[in-house]
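Handout, tutorial session.
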Amino acid sequence: AEVINLAFSGRTEYKDNESAEFTVQISDNYTFADKYVLINGKRYEIDENGKVNAKKLEIGDYKAVLYLVSKYNETINSEIPFRIVDTTPPNATIRLENTDIKVGDTVTAIIDAYDNTGIKEITATVDENECTVLGNNTIVIENIGTGKHIIKVTVKDYEGNGCISSYEFIVSDEIGSDFFVENELSTSSSRG
């Protein structure tokens, strides 16, 4: 009986912006009639260096199964479960429903948030005080006072990736002075 040395290796987790790569090492003294890897049913060929490269897989769970078919039609297989994880942070912008604001008005801020896999959580502060984000992604600030105000929003997706966006505006009580808005003070992102 022939002894076949076989090694099938790869990581169990890949980022969504990278290829899933696997390596196949087989005894040099044995020739197979067919050898390939199936990843969730799709066939990938093994190159001359024993490498398999699966590009642009969607986020999710997968199984890479190596198939070696002998000249006698016997099959040897080995498998590696792996997953593609989301590393893309959400995006968020803040805008005011109305920019003609006077002291004592109620101000509604609208949060436009997007993520490629879905938003898990949105939290906000107004002038460093926690506030409630309503179901329609709005914040209501009642009886606004004079001065500079900063709305800060943190958005997280299901993998823990996040972004923080800030919006600054000034309300003046001086007669004849204009209302001033400086949109999107800053936006920063972090990966889970």
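The second record follows below. Compare its token runs with those of the first.
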Amino acid sequence: GLITEEEGRQQSLQAEESYLNQRIQINQQKLSELKEIRANSGDEAQAKQAGEQILEIEGQIADDRLAIAQAGADARKESEKAAADERVRIETEALDKLEAASKQADQAIAASQANRITAIKQSQLEGVVSAQEAENQIQAIQTNAIAQTIAARQNELNQVQALRQAGTISAQEATSREGELVEQIAGLRQQ
């Protein structure tokens, strides 16, 4: 089946570590052989050459161990970045859905208000209601629309708090949104 990017990274890291560990084992075996040659050699030139090869192989082993550590650190950084990117994507998606629902609620409230006011004005033109009755009814519709908008903002505030609690959005983003919504609700209540 298909593997995720993270699984692919892990497999690649494991393959690289396996290869480097095998190379380290081979080099450690060579190192043992060279140390034995150096210790048991009666030939000074051969012992010196073995000593130089020992230093070179020890350097290769150290480089390979460093490469393993670096690959692990790089993989962790990539993994953390991928996780952070995913958190941002989830947060953005949640906030976009919340904003879309809020806009939809505002549009529904505005459309309902406009339709009801139009109907009252039509009734006034037809003489069914007086100008004073029409004005009172329109004022009641506007008051109701404000109450519906306050309820929609309160619902949005509750949803932001739920998203924060669920860890879907960051505390910083939630605090910012909550502040905006509280200000909007306060402003609507003064109307």
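Points raised in discussion: The first helix runs from residue 5 to 40.
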